[in-house]
Amino acid sequence: MSDQPMLDQHKRVIAEVIVEVPARLVDRTFDYEVPPALEQGVQIGSRVIVPFGPRKTQGYVLGLKLQTEQSEQKLKEVEQVLDEVPPLSPELIQLGQWMSEEYTCLTIQALQAMLPAVLKSTTTKRTVTNDGKQQVVYEVEDKVTIKEVQVVELAVTQEELENKLSELHAKAVKQREVARYIASINFGGNTSQSLDEESAARDEVSSGASAEISIEDRSELSKASMPDNKRDRTELEKHREILQVQRVVEECQTTRSTIKALEQAGIVRISKQELQRDPYQHRVFERTQPLTLTEMQQSVLGKITTSVDEQEFRPFLLHGVTGSGKTEIYLQSISYVLKNDKEAIVLVPEISLTPQMVDRFKGRFGDQVAVLHSRLSKGERYDEWRKIRDGKVKVAIGARSALFAPFRNLGLIIIDEEHEASYKQEETPKYHARDIAMFRGQYHQAPVILGSATPCLESFARAKKGVYTLLSLQERIFGQELPPVSIVDMREELHAGNRTMFSKTLHELINQCLEKKEQMVLFLNRRGFSTFVMCRDCGYVLQCPHCDISLTYHKSNNSHRCHYCGYTQPKLHECPECASDHIRFFGTGTQKVEEELYKHFPGIRVVRMDVDTTQQKGAHEKLLKRFGDHQADVLLGTQMIAKGLDFEKVTLVGVIAADSLLHLPDFRSAEKTFQLLTQVSGRAGRHKLPGHVVVQTYTPEHYSIQTAAQHDYEAFFNHEMQHRKQRGYPPYYYLTLITFTHEDLPFLIKESDQAVRWLKQQVSPNTLVLGPAASAIPKIKDRYRFQCMLKYKDEPQLAHVLSGFLQKHKQLIEKSKLHIQIDRNPQMLM
Predict the structure, then answer these.
(1) Stretch among 178-192, 220-234, 451-465, 671-685 having the lowest mean pLDDT
(2) 252 assigned ligand-binding residue
(3) Per the annotation, does 513 bind a ligand?
(4) I need a labelling partner for 486 at 20 to 30 A (CA). Which of 569, 721, 741, 763 fits?
(5) Mean pLDDT computed over 427-454
(6) Distance between CA 317 and CA 464 in Å, rounded?
(7) Is 105 labeled as ligand-binding?
(8) Is 788 a known ligand-binding residue?
(9) Which intervals carry biased composition (Basic and acidic residues) (predicted)?
(10) Rounded-to-integer distance, Cα 724 and Cα 731, Å
(11) Domains of the chain
């Protein structure tokens, strides 16, 4: 059934359009008349170009109707439709409107969050002269990039081709090589719809060529010029060859003019086709078969498939210890969904998880999988998104935003490592992927699986109450014991005279691991070399001039860097305050650990993974492949290596400093510490070889460290819930964080205080309003920061109150550049 309403073709059609202008004053739809020529193209969810004030802008059609409340004389027309297939489905439009209310953001911001970056327009302003008068013209730029190739269709035998090339005096070409190349090269399967059908800017164009001859001629050609390879000949007969001109030129030492001359001679015909970008086109994924499940896994899978059969929305919390086989359950659940002709979305929290996860899902489902994450180019991401929109794939795997994949028949949503804070977007709209998954699951009446060895407290509390269905996997699939954990008190190491960053226990185990030619993972949640720099004479600490935070020293490029705004300055050699050269570097980062490893263990091979080493595209995959191919002994890194990775020879995990998160001003610090320690411990001994974990800490008595060492989630949960109840934090209370920022501190203090006073009068008496007070980091990027915290158990009108709050202060926001951000259920309080 079509999603379009039935419209009388004899009456004019009115489109309700929301424009891409992120302002609260225009956060609604505007009526535009659809001219007869565009009536077939304008659909609900279409991108359109419309006049808006003095300029043209891009908008989205959210509805179609036959009448308008506006004066018919004033109604403007839709000028252009940008897509043959609308990028927004009715479901996604409904989701965007819900997000706008739930997260107190603009509707257009919610809709834009769902779409690839290339679909978002930019407006350019230029001045033109018209009849001697200057006029300002606004033009909308559509940034969609479609990659073109020129295709040369060839219908000659090898002998005819060589003769023609000789006639054309192709001096630099060995004639037989040209024929052999055309006969043997195979690009098949990448063509798609005609470019003429795409109403998009064609910014990225490359030339190409294809040879299409009869099977008989092709067979003769291959016999004459190819090795006797049955597979190659079979592929030739199955596919149409697409020969890109640039590759022909390079590999055959020919020229573009040669190919052009062949066209002019009537031997070939050149046409254009679209070539979709595939980030994995040069990768070969070994196909895998479903594994035999344990009895416990089979029980869990049965409950999920029953929900699929009943077409019932049901949230499952899959709580399984590390190495218990959660991924295989995901794979077999998806396989079941695909057999029912439905689709699935799989979320992973970190870009570093995607290489191994992509291998597993591509290996099982092949070309049915689209991959969406931020490290793809804009063009690659757009083409992967189009595969989903056009129904060419059935599975989407990716980070947070992959949850907006434009499937229309979802049968399953999976959020792996559901406890991860990265599932919460910290920019507007500040949504949580878990909430979006529940919305889409309800819409499609499909199950949602939240999987983790260390679920967040809110999720586990909901499972305890029966809001989620709890599924448990308490044993590893190969029957191994969870690795023993040794807690080392670094205070005692210091008293014993050990001033290195490696305890005696860890030092000995590293040596044993190297002797056995096994591998290890070393974890430290700080990048850089030193965490702060101080003058020993006057106590001066080097800080960022734009943020209230100390600069981190990075030895690799001899610079001090701010991890909040990106400010950098050269290495400090003398104190700016007292001119002393007694500069000392305090704290430890991953760069320093790497240097110390080379110093204490000669010949050791280290792969370091942190933000600094993984900035280039494909860096995660290359580094993990090096480690997986046993080209390194140590995988050293930050939290990106703490979860999801599975390497057969890893038998040792070392946590350099378990306290790095424990003492942050955040009520979730104990929970995050427990989760990281448990997750990184789970990298050891996952296969036949037994594992061991060493946790170095200055607070060994803390319950988060003790329970993590015992692999006891329930004990941690019970202990932490007591603390949350006493202090009034989730899951016993809901939180909303309001952050005010401005460049002028006195102005900020005055306005935030007045705003919070008004807010206190609007909420119910049982809602606790704290602040305003300076944030934990009082200044970032030259803007001072104050916060207000709302704690409540039940505030049904809160969305309405917060919307009114922004409405009341909209003039102040626009005139004074005061920024107000509202974060419902925040994950970060700093």
Answers:
(1) 220-234
(2) no
(3) no
(4) 721
(5) 96
(6) 10
(7) no
(8) no
(9) 228-237
(10) 8
(11) 13-128 (3.40.1440.60), 148-274 (no CATH), 295-473 (3.40.50.300), 485-527+589-725 (3.40.50.300), 734-824 (3.30.70.360)
